[in-house]
Amino acid sequence: KVDTGVPEVPVPADDTPEVLNKALSGLSSRCWKNLKVRGATISIFYRNQLILYVISDLFLWLCARQVLIVQIKCFHEIITIGYSVYHSYHLPWFRTLSWYFLLCVNYFFYGETVTDYFFTLVQREEPLRILSKYHRFISFALYLTGFCMFVLSLVKKHYRLQFYMFGWTHVTLLIVVTQSHLIIHNLFEGMIWFIVPISCVICNDIMAYMFGFFFGRTPLIKLSPKKTWEGFIGGFFATVVFGILLSYVMAGYRYFVCPVEFSNDSNSFTVDCEPSELFQLQDYTLPTVLESITGWTTVKLYPFQIHSIALSAFASIMGPFGGFFASGFKRAFKIKDFANTIPGHGGIMDRFDCQYLMATFVNVYIASFIRGPNPTKVIQQLLALRPDQQLYIYNSLKTHLTERGLLTTLEEAAA
Amino acid sequence: MTELRRRGAGGGDPDSAENISDKEADGEDRLGLPSEGEGEMEGDCKADTPDAPPPTDNTPQCLNKALEGLSSRWKNWWIRGILSLTMIIGFFLIIYLGPLMLIFVVMSIQIKCFQEIIQIGYRVYRSYDLPWFRTLSWYFLICVNYFFYGETVADYFGALVQREEPLQFLVRYHRFISFALYLAGFCMFVLSLVKKHYRLQFYMFAWTHVTLLIVVTQSHLVIQNLFEGMIWFIVPISIVICNDIMAYLFGFFFGRTPLIKLSPKKTWEGFIGGFFSTVFLSFLFAYLLSQYQYFVCPVEYNSETNRFAVECEPSDLFVIQEYTLPVMVQNILRWKTVNLYPFQIHSIALSSFASLIGPFGGFFASGFKRAFKIKDFADTIPGHGGIMDRFDCQYLMATFVHVYIASFIRGPNPSKVLQQLLVLQPEQQLNIFNTLRNHLREKGMLPPAVLEQ
């Protein structure tokens, strides 16, 4: 029964580089060898990335570009699975249409981001201004064109297949592309909001794996038989500690902490600002229990570290659900890995399945608890209003500020 | 869509060719379910049709009696005609009852459409025996509605919200609460995955999400349009209905060249005739409606009387202006200028969209029905099918109107901007205040700065 369902997904070829194979030829146990391959690959991957980032000025561009590349790769992997499940290789329209929809949705999201963050640049250049003013309309028109092409491409014997692929494409877009844009929004808040969540998820992955490897006994969920309660709980505590330490290290640097802004004068990104209260050391009085243990009365912490506890708690508790979802998906469609891009790990989606919910959570968290509306954006909207509406707001704001005592009588008189 | 339906055996034959070739597609669905053996593959095509309950004759007794004498074809025609008229009258009645009633009706339609599409999903995937799924689908519907309605309430009922303490809390953390609710549903889904039904469950999950995306988003855009002014709700819907009817009539009387293989009953004559007549009729209809404040003013919530108020100074769009006719038209009509509402120009854009692109929504729904071998979405309305059958052409219209309004008509909403202002930090507020003051001074809206002593 298992075999009849296997679609024509190619057997993952062994992509492990020769050099690694030679180095590990001595190891006896297969599982140790696997572990070493995985460990080596991860460290090489990240070390290369890190070097590249550190020596480059365009760290930000690389992060954003990386996010885009990962997004496209994930989309491609999931769509390929759809093709193999539905044997729809011979519907040539579908590749075109799927990529077209990907382009449309990306255009829409990137357009919104560009309009928000590059406002002054956009206002200067005439074609950009028109594109940004009618952005939603243009995106909708592009999407409609794709929709009409889909309807016109419906072929008599393949209706159901085509509707399935249409649905598959849209759900994939919803999951993959929205996430990647939320990541970029988080990035613009300050690189720490990009680095810390991703690191927490990776750390939880690794820690849960290690705790499970050494202490694992009670299975966690039938979906993923290799996960254990010991790994889950151990991973949780380890990740929280890791999150606190990492945030402490990063919160000291302006480069990570400041929102990314586009400077009109230098026409480039700047990360320079007065760090907000979140990233300034404050004294916290320890509860008496801890006082007696550690002998300290107060401790200096960044408020951000408190937030990092929330982030790592989410990563440890909810992140695995993203992983279970992906495991269920793989079992449902009887595939071992999403693809075999990375040796020992499978496809890009395999690495990013736990990240799935994290980006959305961070974005919602920031919107709810951290930042208010963006002042630049508010000014934009203000200047777009009609003069009588502007006057109305001006008067309301004046009353409000006077009530708060922020406007001195002198300024009032001048106004 | 508006095809004459012959009750009885007529519909089976054209589909038989599809039945055989679609076996493969059906077969794919069964791969994950070892409990269904090969025997199912043969009986599949036949099994599909009996699953759909034979359309019961919902026609009320009184109509049946009145139409006893007529032959079956004319009887159908009359039933459809009477029901159409009833629906249109009902539509106008509801408009008369006011915005609150309209919102309520939109909500009910949304829930019914959602239910119809989910029912189809259950039938297609035979997933009646996964009890979690009904709960989860309805739960996700409630979550998404909560999210959208919360955003609307926060926008339009700002004053009311400021007064009540629990409402303030809910509004401030609205996104977080909605996300938490959604997450709970997501986790329930993951925990509900049962060993032999993974694929089915993923399919239903995706089916639910796509349905939510289509149906619920549309209905909320409709309500947002409504708040702009009831004319933005009434005119688009009327245009689509008008196009439906006109295309049908032109096709009935003059139809000859088929339009698209998907819907064999549609013709080019119907399409083009429908286009021109819709543009013309909506032009007149827009003229008629633009005169009344009841339709033209944005719907606002009056915090004192605790009711919806539709009273305002009509915007430029709804004030008659003179337009100089192009020379050609001048020669024909011998008028130099003509008095029009600017809104009528916009109505031409709306009706063109409804006539040219709207039918694609109908073809999409026809393709969907053929793909899943169903005649109608449901049989709620006698002679017409389900609610979705009536609303399939409306599908893209609401989104288009919303995008159109956002791009070409209104700017940002002043009360929303004010809300955002009041949430900012005091220094940021001061900053913005100064910027705004300078801007207004430049424009001459404020007296120039008095020199400080």
TrEMBL record, chain A:
Its EC number is 2.7.7.41. It is an enzyme of class 2 (transferase). GO terms for molecular function: phosphatidate cytidylyltransferase activity. It comes from Astyanax mexicanus (Blind cave fish). Keywords: Lipid biosynthesis, Lipid metabolism, Membrane, Nucleotidyltransferase, Phospholipid biosynthesis, Phospholipid metabolism, Transferase, Transmembrane, Transmembrane helix. It is a multi-pass membrane protein. PROSITE patterns: CDS (PS01315). Its main location: membrane. It catalyses: 1-hexadecanoyl-2-(5Z,8Z,11Z,14Z-eicosatetraenoyl)-sn-glycero-3-phosphate + CTP + H(+) = 1-hexadecanoyl-2-(5Z,8Z,11Z,14Z-eicosatetraenoyl)-sn-glycero-3-cytidine-5'-diphosphate + diphosphate; 1,2-di-(5Z,8Z,11Z,14Z)-eicosatetraenoyl-sn-glycero-3-phosphate + CTP + H(+) = 1,2-di-(5Z,8Z,11Z,14Z-eicosatetraenoyl)-sn-glycero-3-cytidine-5'-diphosphate + diphosphate; 1-octadecanoyl-2-(9Z-octadecenoyl)-sn-glycero-3-phosphate + CTP + H(+) = 1-octadecanoyl-2-(9Z-octadecenoyl)-sn-glycero-3-cytidine-5'-diphosphate + diphosphate; a 1,2-diacyl-sn-glycero-3-phosphate + CTP + H(+) = a CDP-1,2-diacyl-sn-glycerol + diphosphate. GO terms for biological process: CDP-diacylglycerol biosynthetic process. This is Phosphatidate cytidylyltransferase. Catalyzes the conversion of phosphatidic acid (PA) to CDP-diacylglycerol (CDP-DAG), an essential intermediate in the synthesis of phosphatidylglycerol, cardiolipin and phosphatidylinositol. Pathway: Lipid metabolism; Phospholipid metabolism; CDP-diacylglycerol biosynthesis; CDP-diacylglycerol from sn-glycerol 3-phosphate: step 3/3. It is found in: Membrane. The chain crosses the membrane at residues 91-110, 137-155, 162-184, 190-211, 232-256, 304-326. Pfam families: CTP_transf_1. Belongs to the CDS family. The keyword Membrane applies. Signal peptide: none annotated.
Automatic annotation (TrEMBL), chain B:
PROSITE patterns: CDS. GO terms for biological process: angiogenesis; CDP-diacylglycerol biosynthetic process; positive regulation of ERK1 and ERK2 cascade. Pathway: Phospholipid metabolism; CDP-diacylglycerol biosynthesis; CDP-diacylglycerol from sn-glycerol 3-phosphate: step 3/3; Lipid metabolism. Residues 20-31 have a biased composition (Basic and acidic residues). It comes from the Eukaryota. The chain crosses the membrane at residues 77-109, 130-149, 176-194, 201-223, 229-255, 267-289, 343-365. Its EC number is 2.7.7.41. GO terms for cellular component: endoplasmic reticulum membrane. The keyword Hydrolase does not apply. The keyword Nucleotidyltransferase applies. It is found in: Membrane. It is an enzyme of class 2 (transferase). Keywords: Lipid biosynthesis, Lipid metabolism, Membrane, Nucleotidyltransferase, Phospholipid biosynthesis, Phospholipid metabolism, Transferase, Transmembrane, Transmembrane helix. Pfam families: CTP_transf_1. It is a multi-pass membrane protein. Belongs to the CDS family. This is Phosphatidate cytidylyltransferase. It comes from Astyanax mexicanus (Blind cave fish). The gene is CDS1.
